[in-house]
Design goal:
It is built from five helices and eleven strands; from the N terminus they run E-H-E-E-H-E-H-E-E-H-E-E-E-E-E-H. With 225 residues, the protein is of the alpha/beta class. The chain folds into two domains: 117 residues, NAD(P)-binding Rossmann-like Domain (Rossmann fold, 3-Layer(aba) Sandwich); 84 residues, Regulator of K+ conductance, C-terminal domain (Alpha-Beta Plaits). Strands 3-2-1-4-5-6-7-8-11-9-10 form an eleven-stranded mixed beta sheet, with helices on both faces. The longest helix has 13 residues. The protein starts with a strand and ends in a 9-residue tail after the last helix. The C terminus is likely disordered.
Amino acid sequence: MRVAIAGAGAVGRSIAGELLENGHEVLLIDKAPTAISVERVPQAEWLLADACEITSLDEAALQRCNVVIAATGDDKVNLVVSLLAKTEYGVPRVVARVNNPKNEWLFNEAWGVDVAVSTPRLMSALVEEAVSVGDLVRLLRFSHGDANLVELTLPPESAVAGTAVGDVDWPQDTSLVTIIRGSRVLTPSPEETLEAGDELLFVAAQAREEQLEDLLQVRRETTES
């Protein structure tokens, strides 16, 4: 897979290093000569250019990229790069870094963004995830279809604890994608039984999040009249 990263700062270089380790082809683009540190990521391609300029993106052969990551520290630049990558070059997947949470609402399909990553939101979500059981935590927002990646740790008295995945009446527009049980990562087959303490990762429409949280909450006791 060929990946172009706009922004060769610490964030861009770190992403590049991870992708290269996984066998991907990476191009780092930055307009600041001081950011071109080939010795730090020698396996990557480097391009000294303004990623907001069509001529620069032509030189980068963006049309050959499977993914473009807009990882600069400037939200305006990241939006422009995302829009050009999607509309001018038809890049299948565009991921954009959100620096200021107040700008997060702009990072959507209209600007060519498939996935918006807000570091402040992600950090706060990870803090919430670490201290909360039974509360739905939004980890990532996908612009297509208004869907989010959400996590919930199943509380001991959950109504679905001990139930097979295939027997749960999941809300519409939600998909259980992973079960994390201790150190194991499980693919949720219909026969897999949910256990208290499981970390469940879903892709869910935002409108269904409250319904999903209610479904997974503590079992409600019924009293006979």
